[in-house]
Write a structure and sequence with these properties.
The chain is built from 21 helices and 26 strands. It has about 700 residues and is an alpha+beta fold. α13 packs parallel to α16 and α14 packs antiparallel against α16. It is flat, with a radius of gyration of 33 Å.
Length: about 700
């Protein structure tokens, strides 16, 4: 762990541009990395916070093919949506680039050529699946077949999403091309491989020994599992028409594998930033006094802790990451977040439903962050975090302080008099919070850091509740001046220490307290710890403005109903018809007397929740039929309904009522009972169905 680094390079996983950003992305990567970077800037550190769109690979090609557009149109569409989401939520990247940019193509190509010319790759000719009809080799996601491990018939060529097994396309049983639906053939192709097995000893020492105590256990555990299984050479090129062309002779029709080019995107994005800012990019990636930190989700651990470090080691001139504080996954209402199933809270939709509440979501996601295990986001918890913590603790304290200052002193910060023991103790506690919060942030414990920031607001609330200035203001106004001065210092400290977590709230609070001219970003954090006052007597503050508003049950219910609608839509889309029954002969079917009928009367069967007693005009008679549909229909709503009746079913006694037939029902996509009903005009009761 690097002590006292001269500069920081902070990277956030490049989002893949085949869809928008949802709360899982925010919780897993972008809010933690933003908290860390904002905190470093408040410390006056030299920081390059780097990210960009990951725009190559087979998933982009598949999306383009599905939507009937070009890959460029796909990435342009989602790059715009993603950028706006990050901007809206205050993710303060110093540079956000694209892997389709010229500077990235040049950087990735140069990186590959250096390794190629140094003999770091292994060149092999292998047999791969080929779609003869489409006249192309099939990348892993263009192949679907039966998983050899669990029998899932819809496994992809790189992974089975049912059992999670990592696969090769050639492992699949009964493989099919997703492009044409044909059975692929095997064909020879030449590719270049990074021999990861040659870096086994280096990775074992660097991670499992050197970083055993300062890296997260979930990261160490996953890396150990990979190393224990034994590393194998991994292809760095593939046969595809979308990506960075392999920059060597004889590699026509081949591109750099996306996992190889994407992490180089951090370097090219840093170059782009440095060119714009008139800086030298190399110290941020090649100087030993630079601290490099990768923020990722757990699905990216192998790429950032095994493959990319091996690439950097092979290249020889780059530093290695000081830490990779990967988070686990965030689930939504008990189910795994899924882009394809629309089971997500999309950031752009969130702001349509909760305008101006970016910090509420940032707070809820940080306080429930999946730092060491998968966690669950629920709308009820989101509401409780807002109402019981942001409104009742943080917002309540600030509102009381600002309202009372305006009421007693026309908004002018009073001069304090003699400090009591309680005042001194409270200010001393306040000045300790920057170090306490910093300690948690430096160890990537953002939930813990957020709790400590809120504890400062609780300190302020307790101070006001214990001191009760509203009771003393008439009999001891001089004492109240000191009390309000102390409370205002806590409010000022909160405006600074909340900035990494709640940047919009922090800005609003600084304006309210008229702190902008006093506090600069480079010395803000340290200013809270100093014995000097933050908010000076005589400063004119503004009128109180509510920082947070209560979220009502109706707003939350709408979100829950939206998810329920998604769940129903997914069920309908994935619903499969029951398999066909055994074959029958025509004579078997002709024995059934199916008639059109009309329900004349309906009533509930006494002491039976599921049964309705129906009187049905079948055209040949009026008969009683008992039907188990009472939980789906009320008697009133089905009177007059035309139905299909099996008329020659042998009578059956149900709870003392003789049922003379059966009405035909089915289920719709949502699983609701519906009548198999002949509603066509002019169809008379008694008509036979054949």
């Amino acid at each position: 762990m690097l002590q006292n680094p001269k500069r920081y390079t902070v990277t956030a996983a490049l989002p893949y541009t085949n869809g928008p950003i949802h709360i899982g992305h925010l919780a897993g990567v972008y809010v933690p990395s933003d908290i860390y970077s904002r905190y470093l800037r408040l410390q006056g550190r030299d920081v390059a916070f780097i990210c960009g769109s990951d725009e190559h690979g087979v998933a982009i090609s598949m999306k383009a093919r599905k939507e009937g557009i070009t890959p460029q149109q796909v990435i342009d569409k989602y790059d715009g949506i993603i950028r706006k989401s990050f901007l809206d939520f205050g993710i303060s990247f110093d540079n956000y680039s694209r892997t389709s940019s010229k500077i990235h193509h040049e950087t990735a190509s140069a990186f590959f050529r250096k390794l190629y010319e140094a003999g770091k790759f292994v060149e092999e000719t292998t047999e791969q699946l080929y779609d003869a009809q489409a006249n192309q080799f099939l990348a892993d996601r263009f192949v679907i077949g039966t998983c050899p491990k669990c029998g899932n018939e819809e496994a992809y060529g790189d992974q089975c999403e049912r059992c999670g097994s990592s696969l090769n396309a050639t492992d699949l049983i009964n493989p099919k091309s997703t492009i044409t639906g044909t059975v692929p053939v095997m064909k020879s192709t030449r590719h270049w491989f990074l021999p990861l097995d040659q870096y086994d000893a280096f990775l074992n020492k660097w991670i499992l020994v050197d970083h055993a105590k300062d890296w997260k256990t979930n990261v160490i555990g996953q890396v150990k599992s990979w190393l224990d299984d034994g590393l194998k050479p991994r292809a760095v090129t593939r046969d595809l028409d979308w990506g960075i062309p392999v920059p060597v002779d004889g590699a026509e029709g081949k591109v750099l594998y996306v996992w190889f080019d994407a992490p180089i995107g951090y370097i090219s994005s840093t170059k782009e930033w440095a060119q714009r800012e008139g800086k030298d990019w190399e110290p941020y990636w090649k100087s030993e006094d630079t601290k490099l930190v990768h923020f990722i989700g757990k699905d990216n651990i192998v790429f950032h802790c095994v493959i990319f470090p091996a690439m950097l080691k092979a290249e020889g001139s780059f530093i290695l990451p000081d830490n990779v504080p990967a988070n686990e996954f965030l689930n939504l209402e008990g189910n795994k977040l899924s882009t394809s199933k629309n089971w997500a809270v999309w950031l752009h939709e969130y702001l349509e439903d909760f305008p101006g509440k970016q910090d509420v979501l940032r707070y809820a996601l940080t306080s429930n962050a999946p730092e060491t295990k998968d966690n669950d986001f629920t709308w009820k918890d989101f509401q409780a975090r807002n109402n019981n913590e942001l409104v009742a603790v943080f917002g309540n304290f600030i509102n009381r302080v600002v309202v009372l200052t305006n009421k007693y002193y026309n908004g002018i910060v009073p001069d304090p008099n003699d400090f009591s023991e309680v005042d001194i103790q409270t200010l001393t506690e306040m000045r300790a919070y920057p170090d306490v919060i910093a300690s948690s942030i430096e160890r990537y414990r953002f939930r813990e850091a957020l709790t400590e920031m809120m504890n400062l607001a609780r300190l302020g609330n307790k101070y006001l509740a214990d001191e009760e200035p509203w009771k003393l203001v008439k009999e001891n106004p001089e004492r109240v001046k000191t009390q309000m001065y102390v409370a205002l210092q806590i409010a000022s400290a909160l405006s600074i220490l909340s900035a990494p977590f709640l940047p919009f709230t922090s800005d609003k609070l600084k304006k309210m307290l008229n702190l902008q001219p006093v506090i600069s970003e480079g010395n803000a954090w340290e200013a809270v710890s100093d014995d000097e006052q933050i908010l000076h007597p005589g400063t004119q503050i503004l009128e109180a403005e509510l920082l947070f508003a209560k979220i009502e049950d109706e707003e939350i219910q709408r979100q829950i109903e939206k998810l329920e609608a998604t769940k129903s839509a997914n069920k309908a889309e994935n619903k499969k018809a029951e398999p066909q029954k055994d074959l029958i002969q025509y004579e078997d079917f002709s024995k059934m007397d199916l008639r059109v009928g009309t329900i004349l009367e309906a009533e509930k069967m006494p002491k039976a929740n599921k049964l309705l007693v129906l009187k049905i005009d079948t055209g040949i008679d009026v008969r009683t039929i008992v039907s188990g549909i009472a939980e789906s229909f009320s008697p009133e709503e089905i009177i007059g309904k035309k139905v299909t009746v099996l008329a020659n079913l042998a009578p059956r006694n149900l709870r003392g009522v003789e049922s003379q037939g059966m009405i035909l029902m089915t289920n719709n996509a949502e699983g609701k009972l519906v009548f198999v009903s002949p509603e066509e005009a002019g169809v008379a009761n008694g008509e036979t169905i054949n």
